[in-house]
Design brief:
- It is globular, with a radius of gyration of 23 Å.
- Strand 6 and strand 7 form a beta hairpin.
- The chain is 28% helix and 12% strand.
- It is an alpha+beta fold.
- It has one domain.
- Pfam families: N_methyl (PF07963), SBP_bac_10 (PF07596).
- It comes from Aeoliella straminimaris.
- This is DUF1559 domain-containing protein.
Length: 259
């Protein structure tokens, strides 16, 4: 009888098993490479924010106000505009800035169309929420640093971004390279670049806050990224000692924090 050329069923199963094993070995490496790329993109975007903050300070002599007219939970008339809205011209978003009426609240119908704009500069590509609108407004995965509640109550506020008051570099006596201005807060579901609630004081370790708390959190394994007053961006480890983290969140605590 003529000889047939081909694979037996056993040989085919062996080949499939080998391919499956190779895929299983390669998949974690591929996922790690993708996360590394997303983390690099996130760092670059935070760096853009850091440079924009420097430029804003050059023009106005101070950093942006963290929030204008903070709104109580049942308030309706306060404007509650965020630092990230005032920073738009320095992020090459002058036309979007001009389309806003900053004399009106963040959720006023007049500002609705502009507020729905999605700005990649305020997004971390690692978060599962992606670029989805938040209550009809453009999301923000980064929040302004209002201070810390790790070592003591945050009153008066200790951070580089306050409510209704702008902070200048002269007031950051701990040093620009040792003071966080903006950090990741990807788990805050109501984070919007126009809404002043993307301002927070740190109360827990990195990535350790409960779901309801507005705190430094990210979807990067092992930590989160933060932009400092000197424009640099650093990755904050989950294992960062609480006293060091608290020191980084304040502008004038007279603490000494090593790199």
């Amino acid at each position: 009888m003529p000889r047939r050329i081909g694979f037996t069923l056993v040989e085919l199963l062996v080949v499939i098993a080998i391919i499956g094993a190779l895929v299983a070995l390669l998949l974690p490496a591929v996922q790690a490479a993708r996360e590394s790329a997303r983390r690099a993109t996130c760092k670059n975007r935070l760096h853009q924010v850091g440079i924009a903050l420097q430029a804003y300070h050059d023009v106005h002599g101070a950093l942006p106000v963290g929030c204008t007219e903070w709104r109580p939970w049942r308030g309706t008339e306060e404007r509650q505009l965020a630092w990230s809205a005032f920073l738009l011209p320095q992020l090459e978003q002058q036309s979007l800035y001009d389309s806003l009426d900053l004399e009106l609240p963040f959720d006023h119908p007049v500002n609705a169309e502009a507020a729905a704009t999605i700005l990649p500069a305020y997004l971390c590509p690692s978060t599962p929420r992606g670029a989805e609108l938040s209550s009809g407004r453009g999301p923000a995965h980064f929040g302004g640093m209002y201070g810390e509640r790790i070592t003591s109550p945050n009153s008066p506020a200790k951070g580089a971004m306050l409510i209704d008051r702008a902070i200048s570099f002269r007031e950051i006596t701990d040093g620009a390279s040792s003071t966080i201005v903006v950090a990741e807060d990807t788990a805050f579901e109501d984070g919007q670049w126009i809404n002043g609630r993307n301002l927070f004081d740190q109360a827990f370790a990195v990535n350790a806050a409960p779901a309801f708390e507005n705190d430094i959190r990210s979807d990067h394994p092992g930590g989160a990224q933060a932009a400092f007053a000197d424009g640099s961006v650093h990755f904050l480890s989950d294992d960062l000692p609480l006293e060091v983290l608290a020191a980084l969140c304040t502008r004038a605590g007279n603490e000494v924090s090593n790199d």
